[in-house]
Design goal:
Elements (H helix, E strand, L loop, with lengths): L13 E7 L5 E7 L1 H10 L3 E4 L4 E4 L8 E8 L6 E7 L29 H5 L3
Parallel strand pairs: 1-6
Antiparallel strand pairs: 1-2, 3-4, 5-6
Length: 124
């Protein structure tokens, strides 16, 4: 599959919003570059570029909470991806929540944890 011409930023990255295909919940946002997008398309599982670690990572590689890709869309400006996934396991967030978007603007947690990040990642 040929990847369309997207507008990557100065670091060669494009934001990717990850959404549950079943209930449309936004699970997370991460960055992709062309190779990670290609790997995502080829394998059927999400792969990202870590800006902090400066390396590629497959979502769920250490937790087992994989994201099976169902659809990849891009916006009208071609500068943001929307990836609809079937989320495997109890959550997408490394903090133990289903979604990374679990805190409202006042700082109140609006949804509880769905797994223990200490048990899954052995830290925190």
């Amino acid at each position: 599959m040929k990847i369309p011409e997207l507008k990557y930023d100065e670091q060669g990255l494009v934001p990717a919003i990850i959404q549950d295909v079943t209930d449309n919940e936004v699970l997370m946002m991460a960055y992709m570059n062309r190779p990670s997008l290609q790997k995502t398309i080829e394998t059927g599982y999400t792969h990202f570029w870590s800006r902090s670690r400066q390396k590629y990572w497959k979502k769920g590689e250490s937790s087992g909470h994989l994201q099976e890709v169902r659809q990849v869309l891009y916006d009208c400006d071609r500068d943001t991806l929307l990836i609809k996934v079937s989320q495997k396991g109890p959550g997408a967030c490394h903090t133990g929540h289903r979604s990374c978007f679990h805190t409202d603007i006042s700082g109140r947690e609006i949804s509880g944890k769905t797994f223990s990040e200490k048990d899954v990642y052995g830290k925190k």
